[in-house]
Amino acid sequence: MNALGYALLGMLMRKPCSGYELTQLLEVFWQAKHSQVYPLLTKLEQDGLVTFVHVEQTGKPDKKIYSITDEGQTLLTQWVTKPSAPPVIRDEFLAKVYAIGLTDTNTAKRLFRERIFSFEEKVAFRKEEISQMQEEYGSELEQITCRHFGRYLLFQRKLKLEEEEIAWCHWVLGLLDNTKINATAKK
Amino acid sequence: MNALGYALLGMLMRKPCSGYELTQLLEVFWQAKHSQVYPLLTKLEQDGLVTFVHVEQTGKPDKKIYSITDEGQTLLTQWVTKPSAPPVIRDEFLAKVYAIGLTDTNTAKRLFRERIFSFEEKVAFRKEEISQMQEEYGSELEQITCRHFGRYLLFQRKLKLEEEEIAWCHWVLGLLDNTKINATAKK
DNA sequence: ACAACCATGTAACGCGTTACATGATTGC
DNA sequence: GCAATCATGTAACGCGTTACATGGTTGT
């Protein structure tokens, strides 16, 4: 089985979820579209690692709520302690930074300011998620015994990294300013 | 054309490179194997965006050194200012953290200590890369006019994020210790 | 001896995205 | 009226990995 399969099992340890919900919750540490998640869940179900119940809703479409089975838990537990594949990062913006010399200073600044803006949105969103969790579960959240501990750790991590990204952008903007001052000074 | 194609063009702006070298240099912001890079370079060459010269070597296999063409530069320049696709991150370790509650505290600690170790190696390597660059190019490196400016920015960014990852792991280890203390205190 | 590095390439397969398909409800 | 949210699914395609193939040199 592949990493995404295990990731879904792991998320179902926290609480039973629909495929729709899993697709969204995935965002903190993986990216996958529903078109990948739904067929995988069907496969996990066929393999006896998860089960689902139909839930009828009014005013919303019906949904399938998936739960992890004992068999699924056994497999997942084995997987958790195995060595992990190195993280994969693919960031188009960074590819553009590589070639930033092609643009003028002002355009470069604009690009970094836009990056800051998009990450500030993420940070605000992340902080909300964290404080919501803290309100709901309190200090219990910081114990490994809490069902939401893992997710909480990932939120804190994401927040830190997003803030660091912003700090880096500001540092770059500083460099871009210096360049301009020196150029002006030389005149 | 896809993002990797542009990424390769961007790297060739800095200096002409072989496919082998490009595959390695890619590591700061993208991941791709040589089996993907070589055919893409062939395609870029057919499209007139890069050219190459055969370089015979003694004691080493011959290589092809690729350079970006004017046409390639035009295309790349257009691309740089376009909005970027959101970054993609897929990290198996983080998927495991989600389900960390399945393991005992000691195993969890071991996993985080291993993560710290692997990131400390990365940090050490990154610092070397940065100081090598600084020795070679000096303060010129911090100007947008420097050919290596973009790459330098990416190195600094990676270093920061890798250090932040380590700090997060230490924070988690602290939480795991607290849990243990409370459990002991309760006895 | 054996692994690692340099260097390029192809083929098969699996993972992931885009697009197509449906349909009710809520907010602007 | 139009977009967004909720909810699930399939099909086609493109991106990315694994494995196969070759072969000399350097270091342990």
UniProtKB/TrEMBL annotation, chains A, B:
One of its GO terms (molecular function) is DNA binding. It holds the Pfam family Vir_act_alpha_C. It comes from the Bacteria. The keyword Endoplasmic reticulum does not apply. Residues 89-177 form the Transcription regulator PadR C-terminal domain. Keywords: DNA-binding. The keyword Kinase does not apply. Residues 8-77 form the Transcription regulator PadR N-terminal domain. InterPro entries: Tscrpt_reg_PadR_C, Tscrpt_reg_PadR_N, WH-like_DNA-bd_sf, WH_DNA-bd_sf. This is DNA-binding transcriptional regulator, PadR family. The lineage of its organism: Bacteria, Bacillati, Bacillota, Bacilli, Bacillales.
